[in-house]
Amino acid sequence: MSVLTYPTCPTDCLGSLPDPVFSECAPETGYGEIEFIYIAKADSDDLTNVEDLGEWTTKLALLATEDNAIRKLTVLADLPEPEVTEIARSGNRTIRGFKKFTVPFEVDEDNDDNFEMLLNLECAMKYKAWLETADGMLFGGNEGIEGTINANYVIPRSRTELRKIMGTLKWEAIHTPLRCVSPMA
User: Beta strands 179-181 and 70-77: pairing type?
Assistant: First the structure.
């Protein structure tokens, strides 16, 4: 099921496409909602094997001050369609620039540890991230998604609404992040 390498894009007008697969009787589906965002410092080592539970367990257990530590955020989030710029060229040709991805997320558990995480996210550093959906698909491959996180603390006007951390994870890339079945699922 996993696709852990990007295609080599052709440099001419030729190319091939793999055969798509559709099932009339038993179609495969995937459900929405990003449930977890895993983050690490941008200079952290890449994962050796994103599908290895032992490697994830080790990096999640590292202290925050240790190199290669990964932290898990429980979120309400989604991955909307990315913004793409198309540039018209001569000869009725078009080229596409990098896709601009934005994952809006909310952290609705308001404790001191999460507030401290917010304060650190406000330092505006680059991070590596992986996205895990509620049905157990993990996006980001071995290298993770290198991007920026903008996070803010929101206190609503109503007594019936929750204080929460609202944020966005943003990055630019040619391709959608690689995916696999999450070893943590």
Answer: unpaired
User: H-type helices in 20-143, by residue range?
Assistant: 53-61, 112-121
- Over residues 5-62, the pLDDT tens digits come to 888 777 777 777 888 889 999 998 899 999 999 999 999 999 999 999 999 999 999 9
Cα separation, 167 vs 77, whole angstroms: 9
The residues that bridge with 95 in the sheet, in sequence order, are 87
Domain boundaries, the chain: 34-181
Q: Give the three-class secondary structure for 54.
A: helix
* pTM, 2 dp: 0.91
Strands 93-107 and 126-133, by their bridges, are unpaired
